[in-house]
Design a protein that fits this description.
This protein is an alpha/beta fold. Helices cover 42% and strands 20% of the residues. It is built from 8 helices and 8 strands. The protein has a 5-stranded mixed β-sheet with strand order 3-2-6-8-7, sandwiched between helices.
Length: 199
């Protein structure tokens, strides 16, 4: 059985048995194993579950733009999540119509996939892990908030890996400040410098 199949089987069995909170499907990671760079996201959204691929929605378009800026191709890097289920919440409007939206994964949902993420890191054997957002940041570093450490290389002694924390690409959608967008781009340029040293 391939590494990809091993991970997929574990994800399916965990996802299909989980019924403690509302969820809307699951995905696996994408890209080669091993790979020099592993991008670790939070959890899939609607588009990701439909296409069975991470970072293909609105945030994915931002992500792709910066990959292009650095000359990185998806087929050369591994992209995955901290939680492989799509965490959802239901809301009933004034008209009685029910809507479904994404929510951040709960600690128990992150814990559910701890072993899978660890296996994927081991199989990918990356020189660097780039965390996208607070959820993966807290999973592989002692930091509590991306604001305190984004754009700075950190070495995880336990994993024996370099970690480069970044804001989630969706933050560009919610934060329209030109200063934030400029800082986000600067973090990608810093990542480029670190990649040139490590790869």
């Amino acid at each position: 059985m391939s590494m990809e199949d091993t991970l997929r089987d574990k994800i399916i069995s965990l996802a299909e048995a989980y019924d403690e909170e509302p969820t809307g499907g699951w995905i696996t990671g994408d890209g080669p194993m091993p790979a020099p760079i592993l991008f670790l996201g939070e959890a899939p959204g609607k588009n990701e579950v439909e296409q069975k691929k991470p970072f293909v929605g609105a945030a994915g378009k931002n992500f792709q733009r910066y990959l292009d800026m650095l000359g990185l191709k998806r087929e050369e890097i591994r992209i995955t999540n901290t939680c492989f289920l799509r965490p959802i919440k239901y809301k009933v409007g004034k008209t009685g119509r029910q809507t479904v939206s994404n929510r951040p994964p709960k600690p128990k949902e992150i814990e559910l996939f701890r072993e899978v993420v660890d296996m994927e890191i081991e199989y990918t054997d990356p020189k660097i892990i780039v965390t996208l957002g607070n959820v993966p940041l807290k999973r592989v570093t002692p930091f509590k908030s991306i604001g305190e450490c984004h754009g700075r290389l950190y070495y995880n002694e336990e994993l024996k890996r370099y970690i480069f924390p970044m804001y989630h690409p969706s933050s560009l959608i919610y934060n329209q400040s030109s200063e934030f967008h400029k800082g986000y781009e600067e973090d990608w340029l810093k990542l480029k410098e670190e990649l040139e040293k490590l790869l």
